[in-house]
Design brief:
A hairpin with a 3-residue loop joins strand 12 and strand 13. The relative contact order is 0.19. The strands form 4 sheets. The protein has a 5-stranded mixed β-sheet, sandwiched between helices. The chain folds into 2 domains: 167 residues, Thiolase/Chalcone synthase (Peroxisomal Thiolase, Chain A, domain 1), CATH 3.40.47; 152 residues, 3-Layer(aba) Sandwich (Peroxisomal Thiolase, Chain A, domain 1). The longest helix is centred in the last third of the chain and has 22 residues. It has 12 helices and 13 strands. The chain is an alpha/beta fold. The chain binds oxa(dethia)-CoA. The site of oxa(dethia)-CoA has 20 residues, from helix 2, helix 6, helix 9 and strand 12. Oxa(dethia)-CoA (UT7) binds next to helix 2, helix 6, helix 9 and strand 12.
Length: 329
């Protein structure tokens, strides 16, 4: 038995921060940002009283509405995030509370930008084993809570947003999540993309705040090189393992970190850009949100047909990366 996506939903906050807004805060310019990243604007949740659980909760409510089911029917909620409202309780438990999914168990999964694919693959096992019939998988991050708006190398990249799916047993054989290859490399990844403060190694002190340790730090050039190789290799591996080619793939759904990385991945797959979803121009990098936001947009635009072959690929902090093959039900 395979697991299939039976509903999708997304939530982006209303606040828009354009490259021109950032020009007024930092030594940067619209031309540099667009040519190096593909980003023109990103969404930011301006209400300080709302955090990742709000973004993910809005997604969860829509998933129930779209599928026409009650919260009590949800058996498991997995939230992929690296910006939980707080270290504990998990954001998944807060989402459970928001929708009243009293019969569910719930936990967070942190694999940074690969969080959604890691969570989706984890959730699929619970469906395939017969343990559960209705699982919510949501990826969302309030990146503005950990972005240093004095650091032009990271402030331009990230935005807030969330999206998710409902996962259920596939109706017929050959549909749903058919393959996944997931990887991690802490040896090469641990020093290049991190937030060192606020955990058990460096709990919050005056010093950690002064040293700006509660913000993202990224060695962009290093991460870029690793991301291009890993995403392209993994996409090629998924294609080879599943006899996919440029003709029979309907959509590449890549993590939205940099338009140049997305293009390099498509080139390696021999795919024309008309088969690649990219919305980085409007949302920037929403971390665990990027891939399900793309899925939800394709679904809204009715661009997912029964039998469409989808390849999902991601790369993020850890390092973590992976690819997935879904035949749309
Ligand atoms: O989602 C998680 C995974 N993350 C990623 O995949 C991100 C991967 N990395 C990247 O996307 C790119 O490395 C960045 C977009 C972060 C940076 O682009 P780059 O082409 O790698 O630029 P760079 O870091 O090599 O910097 C080139 C120059 C530098 O100046 P010098 O040293 O050549 O004089 C930077 O100081 O551009 C400068 N620079 C900027 N200039 C204007 C860096 N940030 C900016 C900026 N505006 N915002």
């Amino acid at each position: 038995m395979k697991a299939a996506i039976t509903a999708t939903a997304k939530y982006l906050p209303d606040g828009v921060v354009t490259n021109h807004d950032l020009e007024r805060m930092l030594e940067t310019n619209d031309e540099w940002i667009r040519s190096r990243t593909g980003i023109s604007e990103r969404r930011i949740m301006k209400d300080p009283d709302k955090a990742s659980s709000f973004l993910c909760g809005e997604v969860a409510k829509q998933l129930l509405d779209k599928r026409g089911i009650s919260a009590e029917e949800i058996e498991l909620i997995i939230v992929a995030t690296m910006t939980p409202d707080m270290l504990f309780p998990s954001t998944a438990c807060l989402v459970q509370d928001i929708i009243g999914a009293t019969g569910a168990w719930a936990f967070d999964l942190n694999a940074a930008c690969s969080g959604f694919i890691f969570a989706l693959n984890t959730a699929a096992r619970f469906i395939e084993s017969g343990a559960h019939k209705k699982v919510m998988v949501i990826g969302g991050d309030k990146m503005s809570s950990i972005v240093d708006y004095t650091d032009r190398s990271t402030a331009i990249l990230f935005g807030d947003g969330a999206a998710g799916v409902l996962l259920e047993p596939a109706e017929s054989e050959g549909y749903g999540i058919l393959d996944a290859r997931l990887y991690s490399d802490g040896t090469n990844g641990k020093d290049h993309l991190l937030m060192s403060g606020g955990g058990s190694l460096h709990p919050a002190t005056h010093e950690t705040v002064e040293k700006r340790m509660h913000f993202i730090h990224q060695d962009g050039r290093q991460v870029f090189k690793s991301a291009v190789t890993a995403m392209a290799d993994t996409a090629a591996e998924i294609m080879q393992r599943n006899n996919l080619d440029a003709e029979n793939i309907a959509w590449l759904i890549p993590h939205q970190a940099n338009q140049r990385i997305i293009q390099a991945t498509a080139e390696r797959m021999g795919l024309g850009m008309e088969k690649v979803i990219s919305n980085i121009a409007h949302y920037g990098n929403t971390t665990a949100g990027t891939i399900p936001i793309c899925l939800a947009e394709l679904d809204e635009q009715r661009k997912l047909n029964r039998g469409s072959n989808l390849v999902l690929v991601s790369f993020g902090a850890g390092y973590t990366w992976g690819g997935m093959y879904i035949k749309w039900q």
